[in-house]
Amino acid sequence: MLSMHRSLWLLLRLRFKGWGRRMLSGLGSVRGILMMVLAGGFVALMLLGAILQQHASTETLERTRAYGPLALIGMCVMQLLFSGNERGLYFSPAEVQLLFTAPLSRRQLLAYKVLGNLAVTLLVALFLGIAFRAWTASLPAAMVGVFLLFAFMQLLAMILNLAGCALGAHAFNRRRQLVLGILAVALVAIVVETTGNPLDVGWAAWARDVQDTRIGRIVLFPVRGFFEAFTAERLWPDLVQWTALSLLVLGVMLGVIFLLDAHYLEAAASASERIYARLERVRRGGGMTGYSTSGRLTLPRLPRWAGAGPLAWRQFMGLLRAWKSVLVYVAIFLPMLLYSWFFAAPRDEQSAQRSALAVVLPLLSMLLYIGPSSLRCDFRADIDRMDVLKALPLSPWFIALGQILAPTVLLTLLSWLVLGYLLVKQETEYLLLIAALAVPATFLMIALENLLFLWYPTRLTSGPGDFRHFGRIMLRGISRLVLFALAVAPAAIAATAVYFLSGRIQLLAGITAWLLSAGICVGCLGLVALAFQRFDVARDVP
Predict the structure, then answer these.
(1) Measured in whole angstroms, how far is the alpha carbon of residue 24 from the centre of its chain?
(2) Every domain of the chain and the residues it spans
(3) How far apart are CA 60 and CA 137, in angstroms?
């Protein structure tokens, strides 16, 4: 790696210099200055919170040390089981065209990719270390620990990719996945048989028992240092010693990467082309996990609705062909509900309602926060078709409604699926109220996401490691939450007043909240329509 050609060092410096110039390029406009002020204020608040908040408790540190290594090993197994046929390292199209034809060796290109990824990981660690401060004993330990963990995951992905190139396609077929899956299940069964059922002895005690076994100590030793450094209570000797051990593990992984220096360039070029094409489809509305282009999937035509119907039908068709994205959401939320259903029963009947709401409300909040930013089947998917949308002889109101309707319906249905947990638990007192309020809440979150996009349009990143894009996503999510809180505050205050003035009648308070929320949604739809009307394709399309 030290023998990397000086032109690659120059290219790395120019890449980071270009990122910095792009971050400062928006200061020439009012919107860019406002974005920079918001970003600076957000970072300042995070730094202030990291300074003022208390150290993590000893119990929290012990839980992190107990669960962390097991969780990391589980992630490694999942990555090994479900690593697909994309065996090449990802290079951007420009890198494939210019670097692969340059007089550079494979190891030099490999070193360039490793250094670039680790440099971006360092920037992410400096930022996320502040966010994870509450789970550590000190800010330096948080930053160092996050960097080590992220570097481990990146190097592991590279090792799997290069191993796939070296072993060939036969190592990545369904038979391999089946065999590894059977071995993983057998290993879990042996561990449970040896240490006991975690549902009986408790997860914390089970995690400690696993780490106390001989196999557990051997398997977990390479990754234990990452969490010991993350939770180090003293800079010396704890943080320094565990960081040195972790760096030794990363050094061994780097050595394995360069030992696996197979003829990966052809595989990397073809895999990078497929990944880039998939990202381009996602940009055009292909969903989070790609979409099927099968013409067999269709939906009945919707009414015209002054032009909103055909636009909504097109977005519904995009969602239907992106059915894998819907399965991802179900796969995320359904196990949480099933676990709570079977294993989190309340101790007495009086706490049944509180227990059910404690399960449902956090999941609904998570769905409302993640869903709007993940389902790109609205204006964000049509960034390359904005000129066509603006040329349509339709009112901006109905264009905005047609673009927002499809993700609103899907997220509402997913919310009702989560609310089915209350029905199963026979806790229906708040079921209808929450189900009714989920409709305007979902519509408002989708509308705010599109409003912020039309004000600050961005494309999906064309490759991993775009720290600027990652920061924009976080800023947009936080801004959306703040705007949502400000928007629903009048409805919440009015509903609370009606509830107490009417003698605690929940029905009147719920109707008041729903009607006011619907009016707020209409107003937000008008703002989206106005932002779309003022959208300048020549100026605003990045």
Answers:
(1) 26
(2) 1-38, 57-277, 296-540
(3) 10
